């Protein structure tokens, strides 16, 4: 081959390579939350992932976990996104309904580093990427001392100064379960004592809300002095300088186990598995815990002492949590939703 022919051949190869590059570039659609969550996940996870892999992440901040799952179910596992952030309850339900993909350590090796006890709550379709817990958030400028018990929500000084989640927010059920255990019941088989106790708490409340953003607005402006709230979001409020703090009451609490899931019909499944594995890496989990102020199911991570003191980052922390059987919970939710309306909401002032 002469020089001219070789030049033309090389030029053609470079041209084809340039054209093929964009066609080979991978894109991944991640569905999750907006607000501070979006800002933190972009900086702590998405940008480093894109740099490491060359995969472009399209962020879809639309819908709550329950709304996202409804879309996945309605489309039979083809919702238009590849990774979704949900909770362990939806993860279990999605596996049962066959609309979420099962995850495997062969393609997501870092699954092996998660606490088996916490991973089991999410089932084979969920990768636990964070653990929060239901805390008692309060105004430090309104209450003379930090509350130590969930029963503080029923105290006379908080009459008309609390707000409660509605039953579309899983915190409502968690409150029933905690109050049930406090009053001689249990977490799933006998919730009547919890519903009875919550009927009294409801009389204290100014209303019921689903959105965390709306719930926190009440405590921000001082309308509410105390309320249940996820501790990661509570810590962000503390860090913002508001006169608030939060506690894990003496009776204990229930975790919010957050999962990364892949819809069964995801278009970019291989890229989704890479993203989940990256999110579960030791350094990624450390960055996420520091950034979003949450706990982790990976207990070999290193985080600052002040964060470790308030988050779930050790096997001992995990062992201290109440863990209702979520497979039972998902089956009984419709019944309990009716009972919530009848025994709790109906008794609110």
3D architecture notes:
The protein has about 350 residues and is α/β, with parallel strands linked by helices. It has two domains: about 25-130 and about 255-315, D-Maltodextrin-Binding Protein, domain 2 (3-Layer(aba) Sandwich), CATH 3.40.190.10; about 135-255 and about 325-345, Periplasmic binding protein-like II (D-Maltodextrin-Binding Protein, domain 2). The chain has helices spanning about 5-25, 35-55, 65-75, 90-95, 115-120, 170-180, 190-200, 210-220, 230-240, 270-280, 280-290, 305-310, 315-320, 325-345; strands at about 25-30, 55-60, 85, 125-140, 160-165, 205-210, 225-230, 245, 255-260. The strands form two sheets. Strands 1, 2, 3, 4, 7, 8 and 9 form a seven-stranded mixed sheet that branches. Helix 2 packs antiparallel against helix 11, helix 4 crosses helix 14 (about 325-345) and helix 6 (about 170-180) crosses helix 7 (about 190-200). The radius of gyration is 23 Å and the shape is globular. The relative contact order is 0.17. Mean pLDDT is about 90; it is low at about 1-25.
């Amino acid at each position: 081959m002469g020089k001219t022919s070789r030049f033309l051949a090389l030029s053609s190869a470079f041209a084809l390579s340039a054209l093929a590059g964009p066609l080979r570039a991978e894109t991944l659609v991640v569905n999750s939350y907006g607000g501070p969550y979006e800002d933190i996940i972009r900086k702590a996870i998405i940008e480093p992932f894109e740099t490491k892999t060359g995969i472009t992440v399209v962020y879809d901040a639309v819908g709550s976990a329950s709304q996202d799952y409804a879309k996945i179910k309605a489309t039979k596992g083809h919702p238009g996104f590849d990774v979704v952030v949900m909770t362990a309850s939806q993860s279990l339900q999605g596996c049962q309904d066959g609309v979420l993909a099962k995850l495997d350590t062969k393609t997501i090796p870092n699954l092996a580093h998660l606490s088996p006890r916490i991973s089991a709550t999410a089932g084979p379709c969920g990768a636990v990427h964070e653990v929060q817990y239901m805390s008692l958030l309060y105004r430090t400028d309104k209450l003379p001392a930090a509350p130590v018990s969930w029963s503080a929500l029923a105290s006379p000084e908080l009459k008309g100064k609390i707000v409660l989640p509605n039953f579309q927010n899983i915190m409502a059920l968690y409150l029933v379960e905690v109050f049930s255990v406090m009053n001689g019941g249990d977490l799933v088989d006998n919730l009547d004592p919890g519903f009875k106790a919550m009927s009294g708490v409801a009389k204290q409340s100014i209303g019921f809300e689903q959105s965390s953003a709306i719930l926190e607005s009440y405590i921000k402006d001082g309308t509410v002095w105390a309320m249940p709230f996820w501790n990661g979001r509570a810590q962000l409020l503390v860090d913002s300088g508001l006169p608030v703090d939060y506690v894990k009451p003496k009776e204990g609490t229930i975790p919010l186990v957050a999962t990364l899931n892949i819809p069964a019909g995801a278009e970019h499944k291989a890229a989704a598995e890479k993203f989940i594995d990256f999110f579960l890496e030791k350094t990624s989990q450390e960055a996420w815990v520091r950034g979003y102020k949450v706990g982790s199911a990976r207990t070999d991570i290193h985080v600052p002492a002040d964060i470790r003191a308030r988050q779930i980052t050790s096997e001992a922390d995990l062992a201290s949590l109440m863990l209702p059987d979520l497979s039972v919970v998902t089956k009984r939710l419709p019944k309990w939703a009716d009972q919530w309306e009848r025994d709790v909401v109906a008794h609110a002032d």
